[in-house]
Amino acid sequence: MSGAVGTMAAAAAAEITVSAAASLTNAFKDIGAAYERDHPGDKVLFNFAASDPLVQQIAKGAPVDVFASADQDAMNKAESLALLAPGTRQNFVANTLVLIAPAHGSQAIRTLADLQLPAVTRVTLGNPASVPVGRYARSALEQARLWPALAAKAIYGTSVRQSLDYVARGEVDAGFVYATDAAMQKEKVVVVATIPTATPVTYPIALIDKGPQREAGRRFIAYVMAPAAQAVLARYGFSRP
């Protein structure tokens, strides 16, 4: 009997591929390790990048089981392309947009309006065409009627983590990232301001309809929604949606 049970367990083991927004990197790595401990035999493989390129990869046939996006727009694109398993999309966490500057920078940036100062020449944000944090930042700047002045100073990052690195290395005067990303570089960046967004910064997660490990993908999503994983996300500064 024990041999049969072992065989069944081995057969049930799966290699789960999760494509997730770059801002989830640290928290999801911890969650993945905990999931593997709680599901012996299962292996979680992560692909972290900006949300829109991840959608493109899945649309082109990348063998992905679970998709976690940093905004609703990217998930909407995945849904419009019929990539999602019906009924599996749900919001699992929320974040906050912040303006940061190098911790040892020479510019005295204290407010969003200070980005207009002539001495401020380089401001990084994710490319609004493909990076959720860039869409949130551009929308906030447009609301504040600052986008025309800032567009000429914009240095686009291919992901929120690239923009974070630009600021941490002092290569730009300021940048827009999520609060959770700023917390990753506390010694190198300072949060200048929390930026209100017209649309809440919520992260959806969904099962990919043609993923090779549908049941295992469902298990991982359920695990992310459960209290233990939510506690990990909270530890990294994420909040409930």
Describe the structure.
- This protein has 241 residues and is of the alpha/beta class.
- Helices cover 39% and strands 23% of the residues.
- Strand 1 (15-21), helix 2 and strand 2 form a beta-alpha-beta unit.
- The radius of gyration is 19 Å and the shape is elongated.
- It starts with a helix and ends in a 6-residue tail after the last helix.
End-to-end separation = 45 Å
Assembly category:
single chain
Silhouette: elongated
User: What is the overall pLDDT average?
Assistant: 93
Q: What is the radius of gyration computed over CA atoms, rounded to a whole number of angstroms?
A: 19 Å
Name the strands of the widest sheet in spatial order.
2-1-3-10-4
Order of helices and strands: HEHEHEHEEEHHEHEHEEHH
Indicate the proportion of strand residues: 15-25%
Q: Name the helicity range.
A: 25-40%
| Number of discrete helical segments | 10
Poorly predicted ranges: 1-11
Q: Specify the biggest β-sheet.
A: 5 strands, mixed
* Counted beta strands: 10
Q: Which structural category do the helix and sheet elements fall into?
A: alpha/beta
